[in-house]
Structures are given as C-alpha cells and as structure tokens.
Amino acid sequence: MTTLPPAADAAPSLSAPLPAPEDLRLAFVCADTDEARSARTRLVHRYGNVPLDQADVIVALGGDGLLLETLHHALARRRDRPLPVYGMNRGSVGFLLNTYREDELPERVAKAQHVTLHPLQMIATRVSGEQVTALGINEVSLLRETRQAAKLRITVDGVVRLPELICDGALVATPAGSTAYNLSAHGPIVPLGAGVLALTPISAFRPRRWRGALLPHTAAITFEILEEAKRPVSAVADFSEVREVLRVEVRESRDIALTLLFDPELNLEERILKEQFAP
C-alpha cells in the first residue's frame, strides 16, 4: 500500500527576483474566448511575446479556471521552480486575477506582490488496485457517481475521526481554494497564512450536524470508501478525475511552491479576508 511521504519541514525558495521592467520577458497565454484572444493579440503587439522556456513571467488572460490550468502547466514544465504567473481577468469571477489594464504592464508585473501556493497531493487507489497521483491547487474532492449516497470513513494522521459519513461527497481545500468549491459547500474561508486546510462535507446526511473541520497543513487525510460496489465514488484533484476509487490519501506538498503575482492594491490575503465579511 502506497502512503504519502512526510511533509517537508520547509518550502523551497521563492521564484528569483524579477528583472527591471524594461528587461522583463513575458509569455502570454489566454482562454479560448474572443475576449481573451483579442486581449492577447493587443498585448503581444504592444509588449512582445517569448516562448515559455525563455520567459520570466507568464501572463494569463482569462478566468480562474485558465489561471489554474496555467499554474499546472508551469509546474509540469519546471517542478523545481515553476515560472511565476500574473493573471488579468478576461473571464467572469476572476477572484485570483488582477484587473485588466493594458498600460504599463511590465511596470505592474515588476512591482507585483508574490504569493506562494502549495498544492495538495492526492494518491487515489481504484477498486482495480491501480494508483493515480495528482495535484490539486484548489482542492481534492470526492463525489458520488450514482443516485446512491457515498459512505466514507475519514482518518487523520492515522486516527479514525469519522467512522462513517453518508453524503454526496467531501473535499479538502487549500487556503487559496477555500473561496471556491469549498465555500459553495458551506466550508470555512481560510486565510493564506493560517497554516490550515479545510475538510468539508458535501450535502452530509449522517451525521447531519457535522460541518467539517480545520486541520493543520501537515495533516495526512485518508478517505476510505465503504460499500464501494453499491456506492461508487470518484476523486478529483482540480482537473484530474479518477473513477471508482477505494481509498484516497491527501496531504499538502510543501516541497512544491507556485508563485502568483498580484498588484499591491489587489493583495490576495486581503481579498480572502474581505470575502469573510461579504454580504
């Protein structure tokens, strides 16, 4: 049986200091929409565009989904030190993106604040015995596959904390992802520096009053699927879905550091804090 490795004691160093605005090499990516493609065309004409392997920063034009895809792509290319990503909103919500403005883009990028994100590592074991490993920047979620409610057993650091949870599913969210699916499932918003993860049930039926838990970021969380043949469950880490799972292990990967860049007035820490007081 494969188990998750121990959490690293410290995160790797952040991305290297950025060059001066006049020396910044930008690589532009965009969502597959007319609005995003038009924005990319104008910005490339104005500031140029370099291949990803020559860039200092990736500029992502789209919504939160495109930003997550870009972070995963940056990680796949350079796991030891992924390129920082500066996003501008050409989508809908854009919670993780900066305001779209075309003027003085290199200056904005050079002055941006760096926010470090650590993804979750998921090891999902299927009923067949196959194991799949994937990373979730926002969350790892378990979801019932049929009309039958899921039955889950939840273990934290080797201790069974919930022998049986009857539900539509459950999820573990990072602080950055706590305002996404986790919030929709009535989970808590977690400040970036809190050092905790949110464990949240999705439509819990039994026990009815269990609303989830806040766990230290070092916690190793294991979900065991009960009655897996009658009540099949899938596991999803951001965009990676594994069907018919038997066991799912989740832990934060402190050895992986992703860097998001934000204009000082749009600091992510402040945006997450403000979200707790939103009407």
UniProtKB/TrEMBL annotation:
Cofactor list: a divalent metal cation
Keyword NADP applies: yes
Top EC class of this enzyme: transferase
Alphabetic keyword roster: ATP-binding, Cytoplasm, Kinase, NAD, NADP, Nucleotide-binding, Transferase
Pfam families: NAD_kinase_C
InterPro entries given in the database record: ATP-NAD_kinase_N, ATP-NAD_kinase_PpnK-typ_C, NAD/diacylglycerol_kinase_sf, NADK
Enzyme active site: D64
Molecular function via GO: ATP binding; metal ion binding; NAD binding; NAD+ kinase activity
Protein name: NAD kinase
Gene source species: Azospirillum thermophilum
Gene that this sequence comes from: nadK
